[in-house]
Amino acid sequence: MFNTASTTPEKLLQMVAALLLFAAVMGVILFFAGRLGGKRHEKWVGYLYLLPVVLMLTFGLVYPGLRTIYESFFDAAGKAFVGIDNYKTIFTDDDQLTVLRNTVLWVVITPFLATGIGLLYAILVDKSRFESFAKALIFLPMSISFVAASVIWKFMYEYRPDQANVKQIGLINQVIVWLGGKPVQLLIESPLNTFLLIIVMIWIQAGFAMTVLSAAIKAIPDDIVEAARLDGVNAWTMFRNITVPSVRPTIVVVLTTIGIGTLKVFDVVRTMTGGNFKTSVVANEFYSQTFRADNQGLGAALAVLLFILVIPVVAYNIRQVRRSEAR
Amino acid sequence: MTAVTPLATESDLIPTRPSAAAVAKKRLSSPWASLAAIVIAVLWTIPTFGLLVSSFRPETKIKRTGWWTFFADPQLTLDNYRSVFGEDGGVNMADFFVNSLVICIPAVLIPLALASLAAYAFAWINFPGKNFLFITIFALQIVPLQITLIPVLEIFVHMHITGTFWTLWLAHSTFALPLAIYLLHNFMREVPAGLIEAARVDGAGHVSIFFKVMLPLLTPALAAFGIFQFLWVWNDLLVALVFAGGGNEVAPITLALANLSGTRGTAWQLLSAGAFVSILVPVVVFVLLQRYFVRGLLAGSVKG
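YS: structure for the whole thing
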């Protein structure tokens, strides 16, 4: 039951067995909770309901998190204590500095462009005849995996050498050729490649921004809009003085949410370039250092850095969500 | 997170007087606005469309000519799909498809059940230490997966379950809990206290209140989170790489596609068909359950 299932019937059987085992655990908890009647035993029912969750979170999140922080002060093999050397490496080593630079580019560019395009598109299709279809087109990339999105874009960026009888099969290079240029090895040229990877993330996240902002735009009170219209304001003034201020809290939430997602981006970089050609970011570098370079200490330090970078953004995001909830 | 949730779906239904955006758009002289919208929509669709067309073209055509030449020289074939489902291409997506399903189903049901119980306890039972525990779990939402992976892997080694589905079930279930508890707790708090009190007066305990009063009311929230979690697990790469990276036996379809892209990066006949097999389920879920999907996605956007 706890070994590797390799045929389809075995896999399905193991899944059913796991679900039955889980149901049995739930049954035991509910059985004991059911016997603890009355106000006096109430707190024990509470603890019983929380028991599995607290156990799983303790061993699956809290302990591992603390353990990784501890291990970030040890060497590649995890044996010798090295103090803050791993962190020094991150901030001094040339390759690691490239990783930091790329991460900054990702986190600065992606949220603003994705949100900007999402907002523009939400306004453009608002109340149009094909609104829901038009929104679905932009939103679809959000539902597929980052891996599939990367494959889709890798095909866009495909390069064929510049020879007489060779035709381009990637659309971007074909457009370059049509415009009279020479095909470019798009995913190898640095720093161009990082920007091209960022486009993939923008392509994925714009749909999210569009959906959330569209909902916020529709919630702007009609009388404000009506009053502005009677005053005869033009489109730009309406956008700048009515639309944007009204949805500003939502814009901040969208920006920070995409920012958090972008900080943790791993799948796109790994699938498209594997972090080669100077495209690595912190989340990908963590994986490469830990599993490819066998440098556990540096890997752990990168994971901790990711955690530290995420905290202020999440804190700000939660505060904004709270604020918009309170209104 | 919940603030934006109801707005996203319900406001779509209210066709009222022109909104600020509509007015802004009208003033932007409509033809230009429509043109801009169409340009964005086309730009956003072309990449997927190109690969979709390619997945139905013969291998030699894909490799020698651009997919846009298809319209001048239309040739369709299902060979690419046959080879990703057969042994001759070296991959059989069917196996990985089964793996993804086997991983997803428990990885959705287990955290949903556990989180509902926990959320109920936080919402309607009094016990010492409640606030401390709730705030701790709330705060755990921000922990990035990366920081937990290696020690969790070490724990799995000690448990002798590496390379099995158990690692993925346990890992995905655990990582889902903080968000699930937080969201379901928010929904449960909105149930009127009178309903619970009435049930208690009738002599119902916390077990029967949970099943008879709470669960029926909670169905939309459970559906929204369930769909979100299903797609999160289906689309995940990182957890799969770390815990199922060793062999193909338990690897999900995303990992298969990522490996294909890494080892056979120019085999576009396989990659194109493989990509579409892998996105089939998310797209169907998206089309059929769009309402719940958007709600769940908005609510869970900070996860991971």
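YS: worth flagging: Residues 1-16 of chain B have pLDDT under 50 and may be disordered.
IM: good catch. Also The two ends of chain B are 15 Å apart (CA to CA).
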